[in-house]
Amino acid sequence: MTLEYAPHGLIGVFTPQANTTVEPEMQVLLPPGFAAINARLTSPKDTIEDRLIDYYDTLEDSLTQFANAPIEAVAVGCTGASYLVGREREAELVDRWSRAAGVPAITTGLAVVHALNALGAKKIGFVSCYPPALTEASNGYWASHGFEIGEIAGSFNEDSDFHPIYSLRAGNASEALAELRGFEHDAIVMLGTGMPTLQPIADVAGDGGPPVLSCMLCLAWRCVQQIIGREPSADTVLSWSGGDGWSQRLAARRV
Fold first, then answer.
1. Average pLDDT of every residue of the chain
2. Which of 26, 161, 217, 232 has the most CB within a 10 Å radius?
3. HSE on the CB side for 140, CA within 13 Å?
């Protein structure tokens, strides 16, 4: 079946309830011929950590939001939950969601893992938008996948009256990214799906430093590769991290 606005593939995206970044960044990142429809992950829990776990616990039921839309992949735009449930539990859940949806489910955490492995990257620098406890959980997750934790630069807006992560601006992310540029890393990952990352990545593309990835960039990349039946490769990761295609779409959206 060919869709008017998604002749190459339609992606069902899950976005955390107050996240204001996933949908616009996915729209910018997806190449022509691909499109995404969105569902919200919701939870009444009081703390960030409890909400994140609840998102994963209830995600299978949330698949009904897509009804019979002809999606070809499920993109889970929430990275923090993967840290908290851990590598083994995440793998079990992804398998369960994929069987329930009838199409591959891809978490941002695993999308980043696939991108780093495609690059052959081992020592990773991180820009973290998380509070300290979640950053620590993040370190454990990446280490469980065999990566060496390099330098970590923080960008966390604890004074926001909206949300400490979703209130961040691209400038905050750029400042944190600049702190890592003098260190030896195989790659740099900008963590979280709530922090705007595309302009900072576009700004450093081609500057001779290690490739800079973000959770949303890797998620969009992995979904597209999955739909077209292409295995992860260093060439495609570097093309995406270099801004090929999407940087022009981002510039066109600037006001």
1. 92
2. 217
3. 15
Rounded to an integer, what is the distance from CA 33 to the centroid of its chain?
21
Claim to verify: residue 134 and residue 180 sit in the same structural domain = yes
Domain holding 58, by residue range, is 9-111+216-253
Q: How far apart are CA 185 and CA 126, in angstroms?
A: 10
Residue 193's pLDDT is what?
94
Q: How far is CA 217 from CA 66, 101, 157, 196, in A?
A: 23, 23, 22, 11
Q: Is residue 180 a part of any domain in this protein? A: yes
Print the SS3 string covering the chain. Answer: CCECCECCEEEEEEEECCCCCHHHHHHHHCCCCEEEEEEEECCCCCCHHHHHHHHHHHHHHHHHHHCCCCCCEEEECCCHHHHHHHHHHHHHHHHHHHHHHCCCEEEHHHHHHHHHHHHCCCEEEEEECCCHHHHHHHHHHHHHCCCEEEEEEECCCCCCCCCCCCCCCHHHHHHHHHCCCCCCCCEEEECCCCCCCHHHHHHHCCCCCCCEEEHHHHHHHHHHHHHHCCCCCHHHHHHHHCCCCHHHHHHHHCC
Q: Which residue has the tokens 């976005």?
A: 15
CA-to-CA dists, residue 127 to 31, 154, 201, 251, angstroms? 26, 6, 12, 23
Examine residue 4 and state whether it is found in any structural domain, yes or no: no
Write out pLDDT tens, residues 208-228. 899 999 999 999 999 999 999
* pTM across the whole model: 0.92
Domain co-membership, 14 together with 129: no
Distance (Å, rounded) from C-alpha 26 to C-alpha 34? 10
